[in-house]
Write a structure and sequence with these properties.
4 strands, mainly alpha, 2 domains, 206 residues, 8% strand, 5 helices
């Protein structure tokens, strides 16, 4: 089982436990704010875990990881402190169910919250310093889509940057198309290279 499938199983198990917790909160009628905050926190943690092992999801999450991670840290920390405080207050007449919930809270924080927060932290690090952390399942240096072209279709090439001064694409007929990125400002003299400037578009019938 690869890391992507293992993560899906882990996130699935986490989602089931989170759903049980939300159902418990609804049954206790704790309020819309409490229940809604827990749902947002659980969905954010699931997104962090999936984005950690999938570069496409990582791109979709993007800069949203910053506010979501800050909210998750605040929410889960406050809930954990509140849970431990209420358990300490009722420790004298603690029932077996209360003891079970207290143990469940510790297991939930250690086994399901901390890994998601760490994943979110590495996603934030990727925004600050791209390539500083070796994510699993990295995106290949060059990705072409679609894999099979139809006549008149557009070929999208995504490549890791910075890149060299030119990119050569070979057609099925053996012809070569050399793409050279020129400076955007006509009067600016610099060595051609692919950088972080964004998307380059080249229209050519092959």
């Amino acid at each position: 089982m690869g890391i992507w499938n293992s993560t899906l199983v882990y996130v699935g198990a986490r989602t089931l436990l989170a759903a049980a917790m939300v159902a418990f909160l609804l049954r206790r009628r704790v309020g819309v704010w409490h229940t809604g905050g827990q749902i947002v926190s659980d969905l954010s943690c699931a997104a962090f875990l999936l984005a950690y092992v999938n570069p496409d999801i990582r791109d979709d999450v993007g800069i949203l990881v910053i506010p979501l991670l800050l909210f998750v840290v605040y929410w889960e920390a406050s809930r954990f402190v509140e849970w431990q405080r209420s358990s300490a207050d009722g420790e004298d007449d603690e029932s077996l169910l209360d003891a079970g919930f207290r143990v469940y809270g510790v297991v939930w924080a250690v086994g399901f919250v901390i890994p998601a927060v760490l994943a979110g932290g590495f996603l934030m690090l990727e925004l600050i310093a791209p390539g500083a952390w070796p994510f699993p399942n990295p995106r290949p240096d060059i990705v072409c889509s679609p894999r099979r072209l139809q006549p008149g279709a557009a070929l999208t090439v995504r490549l890791a940057v910075p890149h060299g001064g030119e990119l050569t694409v070979f057609t099925p007929r053996g012809r070569a198309l050399v793409v050279v990125p020129l400076p955007r400002r006509p009067g600016r003299i610099r060595r051609p290279h692919f950088d972080m400037s964004g998307t380059s578009r080249c229209e050519r019938t092959l």
